Structure formats: C-alpha cells, structure tokens
C-alpha cells in the first residue's frame, strides 16, 4: 500500500497501529481515592473512535461511560492500553479513573484522529 492509501485506511477504519494515525488531543485524569472523569468530545472534522491510555505514578482502575471502582478495568503503572471508544451517533465518551491502592496517579489519554 502506498503511504496515502495506508493513511486513508487508518483514518476510515481505526484498525491500523497508532503510528498510522494522527494524535489530535491529550487528556489527563487525576486518579485519586474516588472516581474522576474526562469527556472525550466529538469536534468539527474528526470523531474520537480510538485512543491510548497510560497509567502514570500508580496502578489505576478505569472504566468507559461509568464510574471506576475496585472491580473495573485495571492498568499497571507505566503500561499503555489501546482502546476503541464506543460511538453512539454523536454522544461523547467519558473515561473514568481512580487509583487501585493508596497511591494517587494520573491516567494520560491520547486521542487519535478518525475523519468523520
């Protein structure tokens, strides 16, 4: 595939690796004793359908569109997960985070461009 075709395919399908996508926004959620959240909003010209998250400073529990708790998804300090964000025809996704133990940390989120 040519570079242009690979880029088109990545933008349309969100199925190729992040190296073929354009990062467009960075969010940070403070992961403390209670669930905190950030809204990943649709903006003009692009729809947030995929992102990467990284736990910084602590092991973190996270969840999509519902509060994080001691039983939700787990990400180890320093690890990165790649997520497909749910798309509900214009509704925004919300990522929730809280610390897993007694140490506060942050959940860093990078959203990648998928043309709308």
What features would you describe in this structure?
By secondary structure, the protein is mainly β. The protein is 9% helix and 42% strand. It contains 1 helix and 8 strands; from the N terminus they run H-E-E-E-E-E-E-E-E. The longest helix is centred in the first third of the chain and has 11 residues, at 3-13. It starts with a helix and ends with a strand. The mean pLDDT is 84.
Any descriptors?
116 residues; mainly beta; 4-stranded antiparallel beta sheet; 42% strand
Topology:
Blueprint: H1 3-13, E1 23-31, E2 36-40, E3 50-56, E4 60-64, E5 73-75, E6 80-84, E7 93-99, E8 105-112
Summary of the model, kept short:
The chain is mainly beta and about 120 residues long.
Query: What is the CA-atom radius of gyration, in angstroms?
Result: 15 Å
The low-confidence parts are none
Secondary-structure element pattern, one letter each: HEEEEEEEE
Distance between the termini: 22 Å
Strand content: 35-45%
- CA-based shape: globular
The major sheet is characterized as: 4 strands, antiparallel
Alpha plus pi helix count: 1
Overall mean pLDDT: 84
Please estimate the helix content.
under 10%
State the total count of DSSP E strands.
Answer: 8
Structural class: mainly beta
Spatial strand sequence of the major β-sheet: 1-8-3-6
